[in-house]
Amino acid sequence: MTTSAGTWEPSPRERERRALRRERSRRDVLVATVAAVVLLGGLLAALLLSPGWPTVRSSFLSWPDAKAAFPSVIKGFLKYNVVGFLIAEPVILLIGASVAVVRSSTSAAMFSVRVLAVVYTDVFRGLPTFLVVIVFGLAIPGLRLQGVTTNTFWLGLAALCLCYGAYVAEVFRAGIESIHPSQVASADTLGLTRWQAMWYVVLPQATRRVTPPLLNDFISLQKDTALLSAIFVFDGLFAAQDYAAYHFNYTPITVVGVLYLLLTIPLTRFTDVMLRRALRRQFAGAR
Asked: Residue 178's closest CA among 159, 149, 205, 215?
């Protein structure tokens, strides 16, 4: 509605609608708050009133034991879990992108390489990651191969890279196959070779599309660095288990869980943001 001064003001009907929306929003917030308080309060009451709560509290939530174990736990967590994740992530991206590009090729000369890529993805996606870590960490040193390290940290990290590389390869391949063939045809008209079209046209678009699922894989990778403790890498979890074995208290394991949450929750929220941006771009393109 335009006033006599030439400025726009909402009509009475529009003001009524806005007031109704505000009232509905306040009501929804109130209902959600009450429901959350009732649910969380009920769960907390069930926990605190359970017969075994004093034992669980002393075994898993002992503040003196948390302080005593924290130096060794944080040292192992930063040195092996965090550093291992930072090293493995770019290696996994390289493996996954390379395998996906090979599997997406149609050249007859690449047939044998494509077969190897298919076998690799099938084997390492089919085997439990824990099993692969055990085999790499314990069996490979037993072979006494010349020039191959016996450091279980690097062997376990190699196992994680191979397992997650297979998963990431399939994510990349799905992104590559989602690119419309007209993109490759346009690259051909510009004189680009198939490999140039893949590198400069297809792969950048595919990477942009699969960024949210890639971030989800890396959240799982961050958690699975705890598997290195199974091959005697003194990471955060191994340090917590070592303390528990000597002091008969499992509070350090709770400390490790909190450290993982402090890393994974921000990354999870960042993944949600990236997913919403990708959906907005997709819907904007559809219009």
From this structure: 205
Say which range, 32-41, 57-66, 174-183, 241-250, has the weakest mean pLDDT: 174-183
Distance from C-alpha of 101 to C-alpha of 81, rounded to nearest angstrom: 30
Tokens 């792969």 found at = 203
The CATH architecture that domain 77-233 belongs to is: Orthogonal Bundle (1.10)
Question: Between 238 and 18, where is the model more confident?
Answer: 238
Question: How many Å is the Cα radius of gyration of the chain?
Answer: 27
CA-to-CA dists, residue 9 to 1, 4, 15, 18, 151, angstroms? 5, 11, 9, 13, 73
Domain ranges of the chain: 15-45, 77-233
d(CA 268, CA 278): 15
pTM above 0.90, yes or no: no
With a CB cutoff of 8 Å and minimum separation 6, the contacts of 26 are none
- Is pLDDT at 60 greater than 60 in this prediction? yes
